[in-house]
Amino acid sequence: MLRKREERRPAALGKLAAAGALAAALLAPAGHAAGEDLLAAAEAYRDDFRRPASIPFPEDNPYTPAKVALGKLLYYDTRLSGSNLLSCASCHNPGFGWGDGQPLAVGHGMQVLARRTPTILNAAWGETFFWDGRAATLEEQALGPIQAPGEMNQELGPLVAELGRIEGYVQLFEASFPQQGITPETIAKAIATYERTVVSSRAPFDEWVEGDETAISDAAKRGFALFNGKARCTACHSGWNFTDESFHDIGLPSDDLGRGKHLPGVEALEHAFKTPGLRDLSRRAPYMHDGSMATIEEVVDHYIGGGIQRPSLSAEMQPLPLSASERADLLAFLDTLTGDLAPVVLPVLPR
Fold it and tell me: Looking at the 3D structure of the chain, how many domains does it have?
């Protein structure tokens, strides 16, 4: 299936209805009436966050069960690293929301890297990859850490030769890629195909979107309305996966230029990093590209404060006049984006 770009804003009528309800809530006296208006606004927005019915796969790397099985083996195999000690799962661990739970990634030789490990959750819907967007496809992304000296430190030529000496892999590659064999391209396609099947679990928010009014609290519904309105979160965190797949400087104190390193001279991209999705958020601490915030509460407070002022700061980053109760409602909503964790069965690797 070809990827179709997600709608990033509500349809016109729904948007007008929601805007009217939000305006009424903001103008109404504090208390019950304002809360009712926020609940009405939440109703108007929720269809824009409905989960997709299927996973998109590119035409040049379509889904097959054999390819997923092979990709899973490669994903968990430490022989893909130069030291034979690290696998993709060493940093993208399902037990940590498909990250590693560390403020900063740790690579070859226990080297501490400059950025936090991003999750691979819902990567099938990604438009660019890495915090700075330097990979255009998931296949390109899959080979990046394998080759990087500071990460898995494995040259591709020796890797192909090593896998070619394992009869089990020779057979599996032939089954998945007939007459192509083991190459960097087929390694990347297999891993990317498996990673596309890593999709966030159904969460209470999804049950509410589908019509179960008891799935989330009224506080969470008010928080969802604030998320779309007064808090302006959907300026970046839009769509079912809660990301615009774009890059923004959100005012963190860092010398890292992010996207700006790859597109120099564009002021708005200096210190800009890819908007992360928010699915299974509570399992993915710490937060931000540099792992500088330990809790979701810290993240919300950062946005309330507006971030460090500098020329590249996103225009969307402005101080938020949220009350303590509104902050609590927003946090209640964010908590509904985490579902039950499906167990992952580790594969038996070819020898």
Answer: 2
Q: How many CB atoms lie within 10 A of CB 160?
A: 15
Residues 156, 260, single domain; the answer is: no
CA distances from 125 to 5, 33, 237, 288 (A): 9, 39, 14, 20
The single residue listed with the structure tokens 């690797």 is: 349
**What backbone phi and psi angles, to 5 degrees, belong to 321?**
-85, 65
State the Cα–Cα distance between residues 70 and 91, nearest whole angstrom: 19
DSSP of 210-268: TT-TTSS-HHHHHHHHHHHTTT-GGGTS-TTTT--S-EE----S----BHHHHSTT-GG
pLDDT score recorded for residue 186: 98
- DSSP output for 91-115: HSBGGGTTB-SSSS-B-GGG-B-SS
pLDDT digits (tens, 9 = 90+) for 30-57: 555 556 777 777 888 888 999 999 999 9
Packed helices 156-164 and 167-176: angle between N→C axes, nearest 10 degrees: 100
pLDDT digits 0-9 by tens, 72-127: 999 999 999 999 999 999 999 999 999 999 999 999 999 999 999 999 999 999 99
**Residue 14's pLDDT is what?**
45
- Residue ranges making up the domain that contains 240: 202-335
pLDDT per residue over 263-318, tens digit each? 999 999 999 999 999 999 999 999 999 999 999 999 999 999 999 999 999 999 99
Per-residue model confidence (pLDDT) at position 38: 75
| Residue 273, strand partner residues | 248
- Neighbouring residues of 248: CB distance < 8 A, sequence distance ≥ 6: 236, 272, 273, 275, 314, 316, 317
- pTM across the whole model: 0.89
In this structure, are 218 and 331 located in the same domain? yes
CATH (domain of 322): 1.10.760.10
Task: Please check whether residue 227 lies inside any domain of the structure.
Answer: yes
Active site residues: 151
Nearest-CA neighbor of 114 among 256, 281, 319? 256
